[in-house]
Structures are given as C-alpha cells and as structure tokens.
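README, section 4: Worked example with a bound small molecule

Sections 1 through 3 covered apo chains. Here we extend the same pipeline to holo records, where the ligand is supplied as SMILES alongside the sequence. The molecule in this example is zinc ion. Nothing else about the input changes; the structure line simply encodes the ligand pose together with the chain.
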Amino acid sequence: MIYENEYAKVDFFDWEPIQKCKKVGLAISGGTDSALVLYMLCNELKHKNYDYEIVLFTLVQDSQPMVQHIVMDVVDIIRDMFPEVNVPTPLFTHWGGDVHNEHMGNKKVNSSREFKKKLIAEGKIDSILSGRNLITFATAEEQATYGLDTLRVEPRPSIMRDGIPHYEPLSITDKKFVAKVYEDEGLLETLFPHTISCTGNAQDTDYFTKVCEKCWSCQERKWAFGVY
Ligand SMILES: [Zn+2]
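The generated complex, written as structure tokens:
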C-alpha cells in the first residue's frame, strides 16, 4: 500500500525480508507514529493475503504508568477499524527507571532491546516493525539533549539486527508526513485523539491529567499536527 503526500512517499511493506516473516513484533507506545504503523500493517493484512501474526509489545516505565491505558485505547480503536484482523493485546513489560532522571534514553533503549531479544529467543517474533522516523524540527545539537538512542537526522534503512529484519518504513521521513497521512486517511478525528506523545512524568502532567507541553515529544507533535 502506497502512502504519498508532499513530504514523502512510503510504499508500506515493500521490503522483501519482512514479507517472508510470519510473526511481526511492533513496539507500540501510545504515540502517533507506532499507532500509524499499526494502522498501516492492519490495512495491509486486510487487503493482501499475508499469513501474519501481529505481536504488540510495550515497555512501561514506572514514571509513566498511564502508558498501558493509552496503548490499550489505541489498540481498541484499531480493532474497531479492522475487525477482520487479529490485533492482540500487547505484551507489557515494566521498567523501573525514569528517563528524566537517568540520562534519558540509553538505559530505556537497552531495556527495550533486551525485551525484544527475549521475544526473539522465545520464538514469539521473527521480525520487528517500528514507527521510528526522522526528527527535522530540531537540530542535531538540540536532539542530543533529548537523550535519544541515536540522533534522527539521517534516513536509516531497514536492517537486519539480532538475526531478524527490522523494518522502519517511516525512517525516510518525519512527523509532518505522519500528520498528513492521518489527515488523508481520515484518522484525525478517530485515531489521533487517542494517541498521546508526551513523555512528561507525574509532576509535569498533574498526575497524567494533561500533557506537559514542554517535552520534545509535545513540541514535535505541536509542530506537525498543530496541537499538543
Ligand atoms: Zn510533554
């Protein structure tokens, strides 16, 4: 399925290694990007005859316990949109750290990677699908302060890692593309309101009753979608 607008053209699932797999693992965070690739995957499975099992997984850090509820909300919306596709309840794993206090990023990324390796070793997944995209609204210097695992300034091709294909269809573009696909697919009134991008902790969000409007994820969402 091709998704094309003024920002990019993404031919979803146009990568042979991923087409040969059977159990695709998607890390779903409750944000707009992973929700969109889940939508794209379900759309693909609905229209093409792939024999695929979807496995969803989420790393819930203790400083953001609401993530589990946000993710379930997104999953329920996608289930309503694609009743013919088996969208499973995500596998949740907990992480005791707080990215705001622990040199954000790397420790969380390592925990997430360990979880993926465990799923691979147990035979639960044989491929990874990711909503990772480029960050173009901030400079490399600014991104370095976000504590991301790697700067998202260069397109990253889909790769083999830990012995399985990692497919990152949005890695050639940024959140403006994502926002336009939401608009073109009619998802701004349906899926979008159920996603939350904020990475703020309890203090920043009045115990998760509002988004913080200051973390980089909030800033990027406002830049692309026009709202926090
Ligand atoms: Zn925020």
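What to look for in the output: The radius of gyration is 17 Å. The pocket of zinc ion is lined by residues 198-200, 211-212, 215, 217-218 (CB under 6 Å).

Section 5 describes how to batch many such records.
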